[in-house]
């Protein structure tokens, strides 16, 4: 029982950190209000119109039902529960494969500014990730049908999370030869229900693949230089400049020193984590818009980083401290000419409010009148 006590303390700390946000309205993302409108429109007309491509049918349905019962409090609370499930599943996976210092890794995941800011708002990132971690837990428990169903619910919540679920199944297939038939069955359940969940968006697009195409603006925003610039800058700011340099520097140093042999330890868990994270980065290079798209990489990068330093806890503790500070204060090296529509930027060094602070301010602005037009905060808060 004592071995599990730190796990429970971390989960209780997460609840204390996240719970105040359930009272702050639906959230700071304009897409949230599209999700709510989709459910309301469907209830009134029985005509399904996706909130945005490629469609988020499972999430839109769940949020509509919860919103009708308990408003933003209940929709936020549901996402918070899934965020805590992610933390539990992360610790369980690390514990099962004997990853060192996994409590510090979980603490880093818990207070990562993008994870924290999305942990109790009506947005799909952590609900999708929560379903996938439920699927992972069920695979390890050898409950394959429910695992496949959970993976499908995750994909129906946010399609790109299917990449994490699929890579996990492939990894388990490679290391569990005795269970391969059951893992294939879980994959079939996953695929079948995912297809079913995307029938409504496909019907909306008149059975074409148009619903799979994201709207990302005109070609003037996507020259090779702008694409790679956005991708690199947003990755840098996602972890904060000190955090990114720490992860990258130590990981490269350890990789060269060990010739990447550490990736094969722990039954290949770090190899699965790093490979999946790199696949997400390739996807993000194709659409480097919202940094929150990288949220599924947080537990993956932390696993690879933790295994690379193994039993040396100092780098992980340092990273955790950096992430905590960056939630409130952040160094910035570039300011765009137009927010979300930048074609150039001004370069320098600025101390700005962290991501958690900025999104909380925007969230409170949304809460004032409960519609996107009321949000008057559209960038870094001046004065810091």
Describe the structure.
Strands 1-2 form a two-stranded antiparallel sheet. By secondary structure, it is mostly helical. It contains 16 helices and two strands. The model is unreliable at 376-384 (pLDDT under 50).
Topology:
Blueprint: H1 5-18, H2 30-45, H3 57-96, H4 102-111, H5 113-117, H6 125-140, H7 144-157, H8 162-175, H9 180-197, H10 199-204, H11 224-239, H12 241-258, H13 269-286, H14 297-309, H15 314-326, E1 329-336, E2 345-353, H16 355-369
Antiparallel strand pairs: 1-2
Summarize the main sheet: 2 strands, antiparallel
Approximate helicity band: 55-70%
Shape category: globular
Uncertain regions spanning at least 5 consecutive residues? 376-384
Q: How would you classify the quaternary structure?
A: single chain
Task: List its traits.
mainly alpha; disordered C terminus; 16 helices; 384 residues
Could you provide a short overview of the structure?
With 384 residues, this protein is mainly alpha-helical. It has 16 helices and two strands.
């Amino acid at each position: 029982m004592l071995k599990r006590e730190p796990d429970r303390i971390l989960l209780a700390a997460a609840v204390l950190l996240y719970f105040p946000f359930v009272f702050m309205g639906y959230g700071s993302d304009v897409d949230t209000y599209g999700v709510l409108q989709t459910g309301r429109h469907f209830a009134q007309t029985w005509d399904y119109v996706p909130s945005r491509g490629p469609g988020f049918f499972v999430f839109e349905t769940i949020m509509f039902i919860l919103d009708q019962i308990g408003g933003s409090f209940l929709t936020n609370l549901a996402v918070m529960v899934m965020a805590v499930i992610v933390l539990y599943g992360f610790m369980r996976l690390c514990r099962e494969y004997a990853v060192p210092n996994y409590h510090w890794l979980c603490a880093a995941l818990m207070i990562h500014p993008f994870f924290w800011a999305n942990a109790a708002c009506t947005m799909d990132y952590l609900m999708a990730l929560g379903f996938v971690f439920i699927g992972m837990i069920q695979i390890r428990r050898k409950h394959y049908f429910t695992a496949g169903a959970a993976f499908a619910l995750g994909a129906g919540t946010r399609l790109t999370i299917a990449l994490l679920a699929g890579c996990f199944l492939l990894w388990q297939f490679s290391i569990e030869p005795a269970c391969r038939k059951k893992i294939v069955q879980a994959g079939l359940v996953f695929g079948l229900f995912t297809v079913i969940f995307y029938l409504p968006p496909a019907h909306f697009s008149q059975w074409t693949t148009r619903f799979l195409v994201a709207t990302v603006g005109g070609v003037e925003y996507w020259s090779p230089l702008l694409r790679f610039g956005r991708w690199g800058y947003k990755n840098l700011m996602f972890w904060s400049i000190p955090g990114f340099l720490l992860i990258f520097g130590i990981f490269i140093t350890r990789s060269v020193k060990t010739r990447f042999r550490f990736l094969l330890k722990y039954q290949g868990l770090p190899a699965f984590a790093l490979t999946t994270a790199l696949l997400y980065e390739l996807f993000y290079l194709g659409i480097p818009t919202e940094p929150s798209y990288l949220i599924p990489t947080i537990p993956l990068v932390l696993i690879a980083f933790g295994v690379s330093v193994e039993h040396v806890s100092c780098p992980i503790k340092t990273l955790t401290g950096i992430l905590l500070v960056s939630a409130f204060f952040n160094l910035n090296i570039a300011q765009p000419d137009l927010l979300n529509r930048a074609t150039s930027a001004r370069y320098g060094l600025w101390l700005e409010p962290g991501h958690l602070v900025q999104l909380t301010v925007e969230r409170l602005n949304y809460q004032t009148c409960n519609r996107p037009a009321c949000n008057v905060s559209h960038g870094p808060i001046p004065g810091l």
